[in-house]
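Question (not urgent): is this output format expected?
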Amino acid sequence: MYRIARAAFAAGLLSAFFVDPSSAQQASLKIGVLSDFSSVYSDIGGMGNVEATKMAIEDFGGQMFGKPIDMVSADVLNKPDIASTIARKWWETEGVDMIIDLPTSATALAVMELSKQYEKIMIVTDAASSDITGKSCSPYTAHWTYDTYANAHTVGSAIVKNGGDTWFFLTADYVFGHSVERDTGDVVKAAGGKVVGSVKHPLNTADFSSFLLQAQASKAKIIGLANGGGDTINAIKQAGEFGIVAGGQNLAAIVMFISDVHSLGLKLAQGLIITEAYYWDLNDKTRAFGKRFLERVKRMPTMNQAATYSATLHYLKAVQAAGTRDTKTVMAKMRELPVQDAFTDNGVLREDGRMVHSMFLFQVKKPEESKGPWDYYKLLAEVPADQAFRPLKDGGCPLVK
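Got this back:
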């Protein structure tokens, strides 16, 4: 069986020495989960990502090269400096082989710089900026679940085609929100629409009133929510209180999760067009994983949690197939092996670090259409990987020749 230890964050106690390479080769394989356990993104990842990692380790068999697989976890508090401090400690003194999750784009980009320094693998399953596999790409980073380009192209293009041709953005004021606004705005303009304005709000905002009033005053047909998690939930709830949809404007949640729909309830969320990489009721594999996760966590998995399971399992398969934990050898094997599991049956890891796969366009059901808890989506379309994700040649990744 795997062994689990929760990492304690104590910056003042960090050591400045490295693990001896010979002893590291004899140590157990160790995976570190850097997540948000206490803030705006805890529902979409958080302890659900820890449980998904445990499930992958169990399904793999719990051992690698005859030794138990270990796992540590820590809350980054959505701060890049804290994420970097913990990652440095894990890689320098605690023998962590791979770090997974990273709840925000800012934390992901910060830890990516360290992963290059230490030549260690990290897999991003929560953060969304398309820059992760674009201008900021790394030979040691895989981006697994979704990104702002994919979501913008699936949701944004569908809405513009249906007449939503003027947009105003409500944008979380950090890398992720800026990326969502940029990528979706590009889609809107390419389709002949117009972006009439935007307003930035701090992460984890409680009061959206002033921002929503500006969006309402813009008269845009579509108010694009360039945020996620608790911010998206609060914005939609408060938009209902302001009568924005009743007044003729519509909301577009560019990045939304089944946990958000669950928190909102179908009465508020009904009719929203969203994109996801995973939904528990798509097929036999997704249903089997969803039901196992539900038994353990008492909630259906988000796409990030299903992706964390997938990425962990794929990493372990690659280490086993490579016969070594050597970073470059394992990364090469991860690109060579197809990704086929409960998350996707058609995944491929590209040289820029983007794991490409089908995305799905859904509409949230009306309350009377739902057959029970977590029966929330109607499938509108499956979008193939080559249509959903940015073409390799267009990302600006220096690794791509």
